[in-house]
Write a structure and sequence with these properties.
Mean pLDDT: 83
Helix content: 25-40%
Radius of gyration: 34 Å
Organism: Hansschlegelia quercus
Structural class: alpha+beta
Distance between the termini: 109 Å
Function: This is one of the proteins that binds to the 5S RNA in the ribosome where it forms part of the central protuberance.
Number of domains: 3
Subunit structure: Part of the 50S ribosomal subunit; part of the 5S rRNA/L5/L18/L25 subcomplex. Contacts the 5S rRNA. Binds to the 5S rRNA independently of L5 and L18.
CATH superfamily of the largest domain: Ribosomal Protein L25, Chain P
Protein name: Large ribosomal subunit protein bL25
Order of helices and strands: EHEEHEEEEHEEEEEEHH
Keywords: Ribonucleoprotein, Ribosomal protein, RNA-binding, rRNA-binding
CATH topology of the largest domain: Ribosomal Protein L25, Chain P
Shape: elongated
Low-confidence stretches: 214-222
Length: about 250
Amino acid sequence: MSATKALKAEAREKAGKGAARALRREGKIPAVIYGGKKAPVGIALDSRELTLLLHAGGFKTTVFEIDTGAGKERAIPRDYQRDPVKDTLLHIDFFRVSASSVVDVEVPVHFLNEEDCPGIKKRGGVLNVVLHSVHVKAGVDDIPTAIEVDLKGLDIGDIIHANTVKLPKGVTFAAEDLEGVTIATIAAPTVVQEEIAEEQAEAAAENRGETVETEEGAESEASEGETEAEAADAKQDEDKKSESRKSQDD
Protein backbone atom coordinates (compact mmCIF):
# COMPACT_ATOMS: atom_id res chain seq x y z
CA MET A 1 0.00 0.00 0.00
CA SER A 2 1.09 3.57 -0.66
CA ALA A 3 2.46 5.44 2.34
CA THR A 4 1.34 8.98 3.14
CA LYS A 5 4.01 11.54 2.24
CA ALA A 6 4.59 14.94 3.77
CA LEU A 7 4.62 17.95 1.46
CA LYS A 8 5.55 21.51 2.37
CA ALA A 9 3.56 24.30 0.72
CA GLU A 10 3.02 28.03 0.92
CA ALA A 11 -0.30 29.83 0.95
CA ARG A 12 -1.02 31.46 -2.39
CA GLU A 13 -2.55 34.87 -1.81
CA LYS A 14 -3.21 35.86 -5.42
CA ALA A 15 -4.90 33.93 -8.21
CA GLY A 16 -4.92 34.37 -11.97
CA LYS A 17 -2.53 33.85 -14.86
CA GLY A 18 -0.25 36.74 -13.96
CA ALA A 19 0.23 35.54 -10.39
CA ALA A 20 0.78 31.96 -11.59
CA ARG A 21 3.49 33.06 -14.05
CA ALA A 22 5.20 35.03 -11.30
CA LEU A 23 5.29 31.94 -9.07
CA ARG A 24 6.81 29.82 -11.84
CA ARG A 25 9.55 32.39 -12.35
CA GLU A 26 10.38 31.91 -8.66
CA GLY A 27 10.68 28.14 -9.13
CA LYS A 28 7.28 27.32 -7.65
CA ILE A 29 4.21 25.50 -8.96
CA PRO A 30 0.71 26.90 -8.33
CA ALA A 31 -1.75 24.34 -6.99
CA VAL A 32 -5.17 24.09 -5.38
CA ILE A 33 -6.69 21.83 -2.72
CA TYR A 34 -10.45 21.32 -3.14
CA GLY A 35 -13.30 19.03 -2.08
CA GLY A 36 -14.38 17.70 1.28
CA LYS A 37 -17.16 20.29 1.57
CA LYS A 38 -14.57 23.00 2.25
CA ALA A 39 -13.53 26.07 0.32
CA PRO A 40 -10.67 25.62 -2.16
CA VAL A 41 -7.22 26.62 -0.90
CA GLY A 42 -4.59 28.01 -3.26
CA ILE A 43 -1.02 26.92 -2.53
CA ALA A 44 2.44 27.08 -4.07
CA LEU A 45 4.86 24.12 -4.14
CA ASP A 46 8.55 23.73 -4.84
CA SER A 47 9.00 22.94 -8.55
CA ARG A 48 12.07 20.74 -8.12
CA GLU A 49 10.48 18.64 -5.36
CA LEU A 50 7.31 18.10 -7.39
CA THR A 51 9.27 17.12 -10.49
CA LEU A 52 11.19 14.49 -8.51
CA LEU A 53 7.94 13.11 -7.04
CA LEU A 54 6.40 12.84 -10.50
CA HIS A 55 9.41 11.02 -11.96
CA ALA A 56 9.47 8.60 -9.00
CA GLY A 57 6.15 7.10 -10.17
CA GLY A 58 2.85 6.48 -8.40
CA PHE A 59 2.25 10.21 -7.96
CA LYS A 60 -1.52 10.11 -8.56
CA THR A 61 -2.00 7.17 -6.16
CA THR A 62 -0.09 8.78 -3.28
CA VAL A 63 -1.84 10.47 -0.37
CA PHE A 64 -0.03 13.63 0.73
CA GLU A 65 -0.20 15.46 4.03
CA ILE A 66 0.24 19.03 2.85
CA ASP A 67 1.45 21.65 5.31
CA THR A 68 -0.04 24.90 4.01
CA GLY A 69 1.34 27.07 6.81
CA ALA A 70 -2.19 27.58 8.13
CA GLY A 71 -2.66 23.87 8.89
CA LYS A 72 -2.30 20.41 7.38
CA GLU A 73 -4.50 19.06 4.61
CA ARG A 74 -4.67 15.41 3.59
CA ALA A 75 -5.13 15.17 -0.17
CA ILE A 76 -4.47 13.08 -3.27
CA PRO A 77 -3.40 14.46 -6.68
CA ARG A 78 -6.29 14.48 -9.13
CA ASP A 79 -4.77 16.19 -12.15
CA TYR A 80 -1.78 18.18 -13.30
CA GLN A 81 -0.97 20.26 -16.36
CA ARG A 82 2.30 20.47 -18.29
CA ASP A 83 3.62 23.01 -20.75
CA PRO A 84 2.97 21.51 -24.24
CA VAL A 85 6.37 22.71 -25.50
CA LYS A 86 8.74 22.62 -22.50
CA ASP A 87 6.95 19.73 -20.71
CA THR A 88 7.38 21.58 -17.40
CA LEU A 89 4.75 21.49 -14.65
CA LEU A 90 2.21 24.31 -14.76
CA HIS A 91 -0.44 23.47 -12.15
CA ILE A 92 -1.62 20.67 -9.85
CA ASP A 93 -5.07 19.87 -8.44
CA PHE A 94 -5.31 18.06 -5.09
CA PHE A 95 -8.52 16.46 -3.76
CA ARG A 96 -9.14 16.46 0.00
CA VAL A 97 -9.58 13.08 1.65
CA SER A 98 -10.33 11.78 5.12
CA ALA A 99 -9.76 8.46 6.86
CA SER A 100 -13.15 7.25 5.60
CA SER A 101 -12.76 8.42 1.99
CA VAL A 102 -12.98 5.92 -0.88
CA VAL A 103 -11.22 7.07 -4.04
CA ASP A 104 -11.12 5.93 -7.67
CA VAL A 105 -7.50 5.64 -8.84
CA GLU A 106 -5.62 4.16 -11.79
CA VAL A 107 -2.87 1.73 -10.81
CA PRO A 108 -0.38 -0.25 -12.93
CA VAL A 109 -0.62 -4.01 -13.50
CA HIS A 110 2.44 -6.09 -12.57
CA PHE A 111 2.89 -9.67 -13.78
CA LEU A 112 4.55 -12.21 -11.48
CA ASN A 113 6.16 -15.67 -11.83
CA GLU A 114 6.85 -15.54 -15.56
CA GLU A 115 9.59 -18.13 -14.97
CA ASP A 116 6.88 -20.56 -13.76
CA CYS A 117 4.66 -20.01 -16.81
CA PRO A 118 4.92 -23.13 -19.08
CA GLY A 119 3.40 -21.30 -22.04
CA ILE A 120 6.25 -18.77 -22.00
CA LYS A 121 9.26 -20.67 -20.64
CA LYS A 122 8.69 -24.12 -22.19
CA ARG A 123 6.73 -23.40 -25.37
CA GLY A 124 8.14 -20.03 -26.37
CA GLY A 125 4.87 -18.15 -26.03
CA VAL A 126 4.65 -14.43 -25.33
CA LEU A 127 2.75 -12.37 -22.78
CA ASN A 128 0.30 -10.17 -24.68
CA VAL A 129 -0.66 -7.35 -22.31
CA VAL A 130 -4.05 -5.79 -23.08
CA LEU A 131 -4.35 -3.54 -20.00
CA HIS A 132 -1.19 -2.02 -18.54
CA SER A 133 -3.22 -0.29 -15.81
CA VAL A 134 -6.67 -0.59 -14.25
CA HIS A 135 -9.06 1.65 -12.33
CA VAL A 136 -9.81 0.53 -8.78
CA LYS A 137 -11.71 1.83 -5.77
CA ALA A 138 -10.03 1.79 -2.38
CA GLY A 139 -9.92 3.53 0.96
CA VAL A 140 -7.18 6.14 1.16
CA ASP A 141 -5.17 3.88 3.46
CA ASP A 142 -5.64 0.84 1.18
CA ILE A 143 -4.55 2.25 -2.19
CA PRO A 144 -2.29 -0.39 -3.80
CA THR A 145 0.93 0.54 -5.59
CA ALA A 146 0.03 -2.02 -8.27
CA ILE A 147 -2.33 -4.90 -9.07
CA GLU A 148 -0.42 -8.18 -9.21
CA VAL A 149 -1.28 -10.93 -11.71
CA ASP A 150 0.18 -14.42 -11.18
CA LEU A 151 1.32 -16.18 -14.39
CA LYS A 152 2.26 -19.44 -12.67
CA GLY A 153 0.95 -22.54 -14.49
CA LEU A 154 -0.53 -20.67 -17.45
CA ASP A 155 -0.19 -22.11 -20.95
CA ILE A 156 -0.51 -20.84 -24.52
CA GLY A 157 -4.09 -19.81 -25.20
CA ASP A 158 -4.90 -18.96 -21.57
CA ILE A 159 -6.71 -15.66 -21.02
CA ILE A 160 -6.48 -13.58 -17.85
CA HIS A 161 -9.81 -11.88 -17.17
CA ALA A 162 -10.22 -9.08 -14.64
CA ASN A 163 -12.76 -11.02 -12.60
CA THR A 164 -10.22 -13.82 -12.00
CA VAL A 165 -7.56 -11.52 -10.52
CA LYS A 166 -7.24 -11.54 -6.75
CA LEU A 167 -7.29 -7.99 -5.39
CA PRO A 168 -5.80 -6.76 -2.11
CA LYS A 169 -8.11 -6.39 0.88
CA GLY A 170 -10.28 -3.30 0.69
CA VAL A 171 -9.78 -2.89 -3.07
CA THR A 172 -12.39 -3.41 -5.81
CA PHE A 173 -12.43 -2.74 -9.53
CA ALA A 174 -14.08 0.56 -10.40
CA ALA A 175 -16.09 -1.09 -13.21
CA GLU A 176 -18.90 -3.35 -12.02
CA ASP A 177 -19.24 -5.58 -15.10
CA LEU A 178 -15.90 -7.36 -15.52
CA GLU A 179 -17.09 -10.34 -17.57
CA GLY A 180 -15.06 -10.48 -20.76
CA VAL A 181 -12.62 -7.75 -19.70
CA THR A 182 -9.22 -9.13 -20.68
CA ILE A 183 -6.05 -8.03 -18.89
CA ALA A 184 -3.60 -10.27 -20.78
CA THR A 185 -3.22 -13.49 -22.78
CA ILE A 186 -0.49 -16.07 -23.31
CA ALA A 187 -0.05 -15.99 -27.09
CA ALA A 188 1.68 -18.49 -29.38
CA PRO A 189 4.98 -17.50 -31.02
CA THR A 190 4.58 -15.52 -34.26
CA VAL A 191 5.83 -18.38 -36.49
CA VAL A 192 3.41 -20.83 -34.90
CA GLN A 193 0.55 -18.37 -35.29
CA GLU A 194 1.30 -18.01 -39.02
CA GLU A 195 1.35 -21.79 -39.47
CA ILE A 196 -1.95 -22.11 -37.62
CA ALA A 197 -3.48 -19.38 -39.80
CA GLU A 198 -2.35 -21.21 -42.97
CA GLU A 199 -3.75 -24.51 -41.72
CA GLN A 200 -7.06 -22.85 -40.84
CA ALA A 201 -7.24 -21.23 -44.29
CA GLU A 202 -6.56 -24.57 -46.00
CA ALA A 203 -9.17 -26.34 -43.88
CA ALA A 204 -11.75 -23.64 -44.61
CA ALA A 205 -11.04 -23.85 -48.35
CA GLU A 206 -11.34 -27.64 -48.32
CA ASN A 207 -14.72 -27.31 -46.63
CA ARG A 208 -15.80 -25.07 -49.51
CA GLY A 209 -14.37 -27.48 -52.07
CA GLU A 210 -11.62 -25.04 -53.08
CA THR A 211 -7.89 -25.52 -53.44
CA VAL A 212 -5.46 -23.36 -51.51
CA GLU A 213 -2.19 -22.73 -53.34
CA THR A 214 0.98 -22.71 -51.30
CA GLU A 215 4.03 -20.81 -52.54
CA GLU A 216 5.64 -24.08 -53.64
CA GLY A 217 2.49 -25.11 -55.46
CA ALA A 218 2.26 -21.77 -57.21
CA GLU A 219 5.89 -22.00 -58.29
CA SER A 220 5.35 -25.57 -59.55
CA GLU A 221 2.30 -24.56 -61.57
CA ALA A 222 4.16 -21.58 -62.98
CA SER A 223 7.06 -23.83 -64.00
CA GLU A 224 4.69 -26.30 -65.67
CA GLY A 225 3.01 -23.44 -67.54
CA GLU A 226 6.35 -22.17 -68.79
CA THR A 227 7.31 -25.67 -70.05
CA GLU A 228 4.02 -26.02 -71.94
CA ALA A 229 4.49 -22.59 -73.54
CA GLU A 230 8.02 -23.45 -74.62
CA ALA A 231 6.80 -26.72 -76.20
CA ALA A 232 4.08 -24.86 -78.11
CA ASP A 233 6.58 -22.31 -79.41
CA ALA A 234 8.94 -25.09 -80.56
CA LYS A 235 6.11 -26.89 -82.41
CA GLN A 236 5.10 -23.64 -84.09
CA ASP A 237 8.68 -23.06 -85.28
CA GLU A 238 8.87 -26.63 -86.64
CA ASP A 239 5.59 -26.17 -88.54
CA LYS A 240 6.91 -22.96 -90.12
CA LYS A 241 10.13 -24.70 -91.23
CA SER A 242 8.12 -27.60 -92.69
CA GLU A 243 5.91 -25.23 -94.69
CA SER A 244 9.00 -23.36 -95.94
CA ARG A 245 10.63 -26.60 -97.21
CA LYS A 246 7.40 -27.67 -98.90
CA SER A 247 7.18 -24.29 -100.69
CA GLN A 248 10.76 -24.64 -101.96
CA ASP A 249 10.08 -28.15 -103.27
CA ASP A 250 7.07 -26.86 -105.20
